[in-house]
Amino acid sequence: MSKLGKNAASSEVPFEEALHKLEGIVEEMEAEDLPLEKLLTRFEEGTRLAKLCQAKLSEAELKIAQLEKNAAGELKLKPLESPDDEA
């Protein structure tokens, strides 16, 4: 199983691929009697993948929240309001 690189490289990994790798790591950790060093390596990789998946889900949630229907019923991306806009 290949490791993901630095954050810039790992952010290019599609969500589905990252999730699949994370599931594989969990299965491996549960099924095998791994030495401590390998277990820690898998845990670190799994943590990076979990953070990546969470970031991608948060990004998707934000994009969905920005969508609104116009009068014709078409979805349209509305601008993101910054905290300064609320004041």
Question: Summed up, what is this model?
Answer:
With 87 residues, this protein is mostly helical. 60% of the residues lie in helices and 7% in strands.
Describe the structure.
- The chain has 87 residues and is mainly alpha-helical.
- α2 runs antiparallel to α3.
- A hairpin with a 5-residue loop joins β1 and β2.
- Strands 1-2 form a two-stranded antiparallel ribbon.
- The longest helix is centred in the middle third of the chain and has 31 residues, at 36-66.
- Residues 1-8 have low confidence and may be disordered.
- It is built from three helices and two strands.
- Helices cover 60% and strands 7% of the residues.
- The protein has one domain (7-86): Helix Hairpins (Orthogonal Bundle).
Number of helices: 3
CATH architecture: Orthogonal Bundle
* Count of the domains: 1
What strand order characterises the main sheet? 1-2
Instruction: Please provide the count of β strands.
Output: 2
Structural class: mainly alpha
What is the rounded Rg? 19 Å
Q: Order of SSEs, N→C?
A: HHHEE
Which of globular, elongated, flat, extended, rod-shaped describes the shape?
A: elongated
What's the average pLDDT?
A: 80
- The helical percent reads 55-70%
State the low-pLDDT regions, or none: 1-8
Give the biggest sheet. 2 strands, antiparallel
| CA distance, first residue to last residue | 50 Å
CATH fold-level label? Helix Hairpins
- Top-tier CATH class: Mainly Alpha
Work out the strand percent: 5-15%
